[in-house]
Amino acid sequence: MGKSPPITNRVKLHRMLAGGITQAELGEAVGVTRHTIIAIEQGHYSPSLETAFRIARHFEVGIEDVFGWEG
């Protein structure tokens, strides 16, 4: 079995569309640290399903609008 395709994200885009909220503000709103948001945006960390849903819900969009599966 090969390596799983990475999960892509548009978290930074949605932050900008939401008026340019900071990584710290988003982290606080969804219950994670600013460092976690940075790692997610840079593709170094895939969030838990719960965190992914919280992020999407924060932006009032579907989870597929924020996260994708490259494959």
What does this molecule look like?
The protein has 71 residues and is mainly alpha-helical. It has a single domain, classed as lambda repressor-like DNA-binding domains (434 Repressor (Amino-terminal Domain), Orthogonal Bundle), CATH 1.10.260.40. It is 52% helix and 8% strand. It is built from five helices and two strands, in the order E-H-H-H-H-H-E. It has helices spanning 11-17, 23-30, 34-41, 49-58, 63-66; strands spanning 7-9, 67-69. It has a two-stranded antiparallel sheet. Helix 2 (23-30) packs across helix 3. The two termini are 14 Å apart. The mean pLDDT is 93.
Fold blueprint:
Elements: E1 7-9, H1 11-17, H2 23-30, H3 34-41, H4 49-58, H5 63-66, E2 67-69
Antiparallel strand pairs: 1-2
Helix pairs in contact: 2-3
